[in-house]
Amino acid sequence: MKVKELLLNKNFTLLTKNSDTEIQINDVYICDLLSWVMSHAGNQCAWITVQTHTNIVAVAVLLDMACIIIPEGIGVEESTLKKASEENLPILSTNLSTYEIASIIYESNKNVTK
């Protein structure tokens, strides 16, 4: 599934401007400890985190992630959105839980591989 396909689900909102939504999401990674994410997450993953400070952008860019998804309606700092836009990194927001988000992406990717 591509980021733009995830955005077709009305539960998700793109918060960043000038973001590449054509990126393929190959995996989902759920973690809030940045050092752990840096050593364990993979490329082109959708990273679900409750962290909203600018350091999440640096980690996502370093690992060539597909997008960052902020769950449960958590607000994102304007400085983070600005930096993500500069880096062409999509940040999505949703009121869904991390479980619900991961399930949506998993089911979508499972149906593609059949």
UniProtKB/TrEMBL annotation:
<dbReference type="InterPro" id="IPR010766">
    <property type="entry name" value="DRTGG"/>
</dbReference>
<feature type="domain" description="DRTGG">
    <location>
        <begin position="24"/>
        <end position="107"/>
    </location>
</feature>
<dbReference type="InterPro" id="IPR028979">
    <property type="entry name" value="Ser_kin/Pase_Hpr-like_N_sf"/>
</dbReference>
<protein>
    <submittedName>
        <fullName>AraC family transcriptional regulator</fullName>
    </submittedName>
</protein>
<dbReference type="Pfam" id="PF07085">
    <property type="entry name" value="DRTGG"/>
</dbReference>
